[in-house]
Specification:
The protein is α+β, with helices and mostly antiparallel strands. The chain has a domain of 278 residues: Outer membrane efflux proteins (OEP). The strands form three sheets. It has a four-stranded antiparallel sheet with strand order 2-5-7-8. Strands 1-6 form a two-stranded parallel sheet. α3 packs antiparallel against α5 and α8 runs antiparallel to α9.
Length: 444
């Protein structure tokens, strides 16, 4: 029984290890995260499917320019031949009387074909012209969606990378305080320090341990958010390979003076919507013109008293060709209202384009100022962190030599942690400002 229990326990452990090994592990750079999202994010996939749907809609529109051809086969068995009434005077009867008669045969059969061809319709003509613009609008919409997802991935990736660096700093500080706590304990045992000094170091160490737990929890939540944004299963394991530092910042993202609005994807999308509205105005304007249709039919008909259609007999041919011209003369001013409404909608789009230009100018100006000031802040915080490190090291030496107080080293340690956090926050803010500037200038 003991051997059986050990065997089962081994089998269960092996199964758990295999299940863990089956879990996909991804080690992605920033660009690889973006590429993964472009294939798996739900919003991106749906925007790409919208392009495919528009292709099929364009095919449906194009079908209006092609002839429609049909065929028909039919047969009728009159269980009771219809009765008609003829005036009695035709046959010498009294006026006002009628004689019931039955016309036709019990069995009738027919087969044939027909076609219809639209020769001219102004609205269909404009719809054919607008097909490529409609497809372009869906492409631009997909590009805008991809850009928004990309910007969000950049920001979350930078945040997680900064958190990873902050965790490393926390580990270094914890290790430093552990050594300091150990030294303070020895000094206390040898009578060179007070118990209060040891307790103060322990309090700082506990605070850093608590801060690390909170940071780890925030990082775990951030990774789940990043995987959701990328369209990655939450159960998969994701590791970030890029490390952020000052080298991630550069001045080549600054906007040139000859900036063109057409670079912005949202401007391209709205400009395409404007073109579609122009087609809409044209469509209703051409609705005043007549529509022209050509149709034709060819059929064979046979009538029998017995069901002997396959044994010969006469089949009578009918064929026709018809040209129809339709010109609505008055429809209660509905067409005039549609034309005026679409012109108003076009004006609204033009107003939105003007507002978007102004908004782009504002975004670029603010993003440029934020980026420049953020980069300068990073440099100042880096120098401040280096100074805090030097102060801590000097204070630590004085404390170990017995010439410094615990209050001094506690304050130096707190200043160092604060300076390190300020530097990482400044670096993260600068990277976010860089993403905003790239997006505002259409370079993301």
């Amino acid at each position: 029984m003991k051997n059986l229990f050990i065997g089962l326990l081994t089998l269960i452990c092996a199964s758990n290890v295999m299940a863990q090994n089956d879990k996909p592990i991804h080690a992605f750079s920033l660009d690889e995260c973006v590429a993964y999202a472009q294939k798996n994010n739900v919003q991106v996939k749906n925007s790409l499917l919208a392009i495919d749907a528009q292709v099929q809609t364009n095919r449906e529109i194009a079908a209006a320019a092609f002839p429609t051809i049909g065929t028909n086969v039919g047969g009728t068995d009159y269980l009771k031949i219809p009765t008609s009434l003829l005036p009695g005077q035709i046959f010498g009867g009294t006026p006002g009387t009628f004689i019931p008669v039955q016309f036709g045969t019990k069995f009738n059969a027919n087969y044939g074909g027909n076609f219809q061809q639209l020769l001219f319709d102004g609205q269909v003509f404009v719809a054919l012209q607008a097909r490529e613009t409609s497809l372009e609008m869906q492409r631009k919409n997909a590009a805008v969606t991809e850009e928004v997802i990309k910007a969000n991935i950049y920001k979350i990736y930078y945040q997680l990378s900064a958190s990873k660096t902050q965790l490393n700093i926390l580990d270094a500080n914890i290790e430093r305080l552990n050594k300091l706590a150990h030294d303070a304990e020895i000094m206390y045992k040898n009578g060179f320090a007070e118990k209060l000094d040891v307790d103060k170091v322990s309090v700082q160490l506990n605070n850093l341990q608590t801060e690390k737990i909170k940071a780890n929890n925030s990082v775990a939540i951030g990774f789940m958010g990043l995987k959701m944004l990328m369209g990655m299963p939450v159960k998969d394991s994701l590791a970030l390979t890029d490390v952020i530092n000052e080298q991630s910042l550069s001045t080549d993202v600054l906007v040139e003076n000859d900036f063109q609005y057409g670079i912005r994807k949202d401007f391209q999308y709205l400009n395409t919507v404007r073109k579609l509205n122009e087609y809409n105005v044209k469509r209703y304007q051409l609705s005043y013109l007549p529509t022209v249709n050509l149709s034709g039919a060819y059929s064979k008909n046979a009538m029998r008293s017995k069901f002997d259609f396959f044994e010969g007999g006469n089949w009578f041919t009918t064929s026709l060709l018809s040209l129809n011209v339709n010109l609505p003369l008055f429809n209660g001013f509905a067409r005039d209202a549609r034309v005026k409404r679409t012109k108003i909608e076009l004006k609204q789009i033009e107003n939105q384009l003007d507002a978007l230009k102004n908004n782009i100018d504002n975004e670029i100006t603010q993003a440029k100022l934020n980026y420049i000031s953020s980069v300068a802040t990073v440099q100042f915080q880096k120098k401040n962190m280096q100074l805090a490190e030097n102060v801590f090291q000097q204070t630590k030496k004085k404390f170990e030599a017995g010439t410094g107080s615990n209050t001094e080293i506690s304050a130096a340690q707190a200043d160092l942690v604060s300076a390190q956090n300020n530097f990482m926050n400044a670096l993260y803010s600068a990277l976010i400002a860089k993403v905003d500037l790239l997006k505002a200038s259409g370079k993301l």
